Amino acid sequence: MPFEMPTENPSADGVVNVVDPKFTTRPQPIYERILHDFRVAKMIGMHSPILSRYEDVVYALRHPEIFSSEIDMKVMLGNDRPMIPQQIDPPSQVRYRKILDPQFSRQKMQQLDGAIRQHANALIDAVVDQGGCEFDAAFAVPLPCRAFLSLMGLPQEELELFLELKDGVIRPPVPPMDLIAAGEYRAKIGKRIYAYFENLVAERRRAPKDDMVTYLTQVDFDGRKLTGHEILDICYLLLLGGLDTVTSTLGCSIAFLATNPEHRRRLATGGPEVVNDAIEELLRWETPVTMVPRVLKQDVTIGDTTLRSGDLVNLLIGAANLDEAEFKDAMTVDFEREQNRHVAFGAGPHRCLGSHLARMELRAALEEWHRRIPDYAIQPGETPRVSPGIREVLYLPLVWGAGAA
Amino acid sequence: MMRLRVDSDRCVGHGRCYELAPELFGEDEEGHCRLQRTKVPPELEAKARSAARNCPEEAILLVEDE
């Protein structure tokens, strides 16, 4: 008998294949099986443990003293030092959040609403008369990058450079399984990211402006100023955290709405409250950031499995958001859901710093898009393609108007 | 009458409460919840319940008085 790779996902012994196209494009049925059969599943390759129940994931997120964020990720994202505050634990992490949260509050983010709607409309202008577009390249990629430049107070001419830098780190152009080449490429791009922000910090120290980097050079941090390294480690995170996540949420949301006309009509005609509820439900259902890693500081027993101190643990947020124990009719997409405590932005002290920015971008984008292009569909005969990891819909061909009829 | 309490040790600033019930919840400089009032008038009870139900940190407590 020839040996065969398990075709089931998860496999009979609980191994989850997260790069399987079935998982990346439509993970929900796979989450459902994981939740049903494996309280502790295993990651393909390393076989590191995966937690998926809502109660387990939330417990881990709220207990950083057990589930630490201080993971050695240098090789993965090209950074020389931990990104601040994502890759450090309380109590230091909390001190950084105290000076960063005010810069990312809802109030503060609302000031960007007009600029982001302008960016969105400029992108729609370019495609609206064409009767269709590839949504990722035309809208989902450039919008969050333009929003990031507005947030940072940087000129929009930097768009191409920032797209090159974040793509170089997140999707290095090397053969898929060549981890060494990928690491080298990321390290090279990482150096350029540090150099760019080092320059910017020097400029703002010389000539302060009313912007994010100037704030970081001036803010009082427990009676002292932030060091150059600290500022760079924050900027590195802002660049990597702010772009792909919103790109992916936009792509996943539009792909869902393109294939679910009733939901789309509800969102397009329901007014601001419906849009807000729809965004929360789409975040729950699609959970574009499917999982986050933690490293154990001590042994922990989950069900009848003991996880060991030092283990890397994967928190499968996407599955937690579909757990029937927390969400009534979890497998139904319901824009009128009365209780929705999804953890698409995480929970506990590391709650996504950019969640208010993300929600504002999503609201502006979905409102403007549906105001101008309320009806659209996936181009007949075409299939969207979704990346592993953060679920960017890399290929999303849409048609509308005469082409959609 | 219904009363509201917020456990500020649990609140991490998701902001669902001040989005869903701005009459009852505001935000401080860091985006954490700040109660606008502790007594909930009857016409806002539904909103108070909605905010409590949708807090991912379960930081909002509703107490029904006599």
Key structural traits:
heterodimer; A: 405 residues; alpha+beta; six-stranded mixed sheet; 18 helices; globular; B: alpha+beta; Alpha-Beta Plaits; three-stranded antiparallel sheet; 2 helices; 27% strand
Short note summarizing the structure:
The complex is a heterodimer of chains A (405) and B (66). Chain A has 405 residues and is of the alpha+beta class.
List the helices and strands and how they pair.
The complex is a heterodimer of chains A (405) and B (66).
Chain A: E1 15-16, H1 21-25, H2 28-37, E2 40-43, E3 49-51, H3 54-62, E4 67-68, H4 74-77, H5 92-100, H6 106-110, H7 113-125, E5 132-134, H8 135-140, H9 142-152, H10 159-170, H11 179-206, H12 212-218, H13 228-242, H14 244-259, H15 261-269, H16 272-286, E6 292-296, E7 300-302, E8 305-307, E9 312-315, H17 317-320, H18 355-372, E10 377-378, E11 385-386, E12 393-395, E13 397-399
Parallel strand pairs in A: 1-2, 3-9
Antiparallel strand pairs in A: 2-3, 4-6, 5-13, 6-9, 7-8, 10-13, 11-12
Helix pairs in contact in A: 7-9, 7-18, 10-11, 11-13, 14-16, 14-18, 16-18
Chain B: E1 2-6, H1 16-20, E2 25-27, E3 33-35, E4 39-40, H2 45-53, E5 60-64
Antiparallel strand pairs in B: 1-4, 1-5, 2-3
In words, what does this structure look like?
The complex is a heterodimer of chains A (405) and B (66). Chain A is an alpha+beta fold and 405 residues long. Chain A is built from 18 helices and 13 strands. A 6-stranded mixed β-sheet of chain A has the order 1-2-3-9-6-4, covered by helices on one side. Chain A has a 3-stranded antiparallel β-sheet with strand order 5-13-10. In chain A, strands 7-8 form a two-stranded antiparallel ribbon. In chain A, α14 crosses α16 (272-286) and α16 packs across α18. The termini of chain B are close together. The model of chain B has no long low-confidence stretch (mean pLDDT 95). The chains are: A alpha+beta (405), B alpha+beta (66). Chain A binds chain B through residues 58, 62, 97-98, 101-102, 104-107, 276, 338-343, 345, 347-349, 351, 355-356, and chain B through 12-15, 18-19, 27, 29-32, 50, 53-58.
